[in-house]
Write a structure and sequence with these properties.
Helix content is 10%, strand content 42%. The protein is mainly beta. The termini are far apart. 31% of the residues are buried.
C-alpha cells in the first residue's frame, strides 16, 4: 500500500512539473519601455508584395521572418497580418501588435480596392530589420480623400519594435475615433493584457493594461512620427 502512495505522489509531481513547463510556452511578458520620436518616412522601394488591389476582409497574410524574433517573451519565426490592424505573433496566446485598428483597404470610385501590403528585409545577419508596409488604407473604404500609410519595423538586434506613421490625410484634420496602438493579448485572459499608447501627439505615453479596460490614442500621428517599444526582459 505504501508503494502505491509513493507512486501516486510521483505521478502528481510529474504532472505538476509538466504543467509548469507547458505554462512557460504560453507565458507573455509586456515589460517594454516606450519612446516617441520622428525621422524621415521612406516608402519601400522593393520588397515582397503580400496583398494588392483586393479587399482584406476575412483574410490573413503570413509573413516569414528571416530571424527568430522574441515578442513578449515568446520566440517566433513568422507573423500573421489581420485586416483590422493586428499583427499576430502567436496564435495560441493571440499576442499581437495593434496599430490603427479598423482601417482597411481603400476603394476608388469604381469600387476597386487599391491598398497594398508588402515587406522587405534590410541589413546583415545579426542586425537585420524587417519592415512591413501598409499603403492606401482608409477608415472609410469608399472615401477617395482618406488615406493612411504606415510601417512596422522589427529589429533582430534587441527585439525592438517601431511603428512609423507615413503620409496620411488624417494628421492635419480632426479625427474623432480613438485608435489602438501598442502590444496586446487579444484573448484578454491574463494580467497584464497589453502595453498600449494613450494621450495624443503632444502627451503620448504607454501603460500596462491589467484588466479589460483599454487605453486609446487620440488622433493620427503626422508623417515621420514613430513609436518605439523596447523590451526590458
Amino acid at each position: 500500500m505504501a508503494m502505491k502512495k509513493r507512486d501516486m505522489f510521483n505521478d502528481i509531481k510529474i504532472l505538476v512539473i509538466f504543467a509548469l513547463f507547458a505554462g512557460k510556452g504560453f507565458a507573455q511578458n509586456f515589460n517594454y519601455s516606450f519612446q516617441k520620436d520622428s525621422s524621415e518616412y521612406t516608402a519601400l522601394a522593393g520588397g515582397t508584395i503580400k496583398a494588392a488591389n483586393e479587399s482584406w476582409v476575412n483574410k490573413q497574410f503570413e509573413i516569414p521572418l528571416p530571424f527568430q524574433f522574441n515578442f513578449c517573451g515568446i520566440s517566433t519565426d513568422s507573423l500573421f497580418i489581420e485586416p483590422n490592424g493586428f499583427v499576430v505573433f502567436d496564435k495560441r496566446t493571440q499576442i499581437s501588435i495593434v496599430a490603427f485598428n479598423e482601417f482597411g483597404s481603400r476603394a476608388d470610385a469604381n469600387q476597386s480596392f487599391n491598398a497594398e501590403l508588402k515587406y522587405s528585409v534590410e541589413g546583415t545577419a545579426g542586425s537585420r530589420i524587417i519592415k512591413v508596409q501598409y499603403s492606401n488604407l482608409s477608415k472609410n473604404k469608399h472615401s477617395s480623400s482618406d488615406e493612411l500609410n504606415y510601417q512596422i519595423w522589427l529589429f533582430e538586434a534587441g527585439n525592438l519594435i517601431e511603428i512609423h506613421s507615413g503620409p496620411n490625410s488624417y494628421a492635419d484634420s480632426r479625427f474623432d475615433s480613438p485608435i489602438l496602438i501598442g502590444l496586446i493579448n487579444k484573448n484578454m485572459n491574463s494580467s497584464p493584457n497589453g502595453f498600449l499608447v494613450g494621450g495624443d501627439l503632444n502627451t503620448a505615453f504607454a501603460q500596462s493594461i491589467t484588466g479589460e479596460e483599454l487605453t486609446y490614442f487620440n488622433g493620427i500621428p503626422s508623417q515621420g512620427v514613430f513609436f518605439r517599444f523596447t523590451p526590458s526582459f
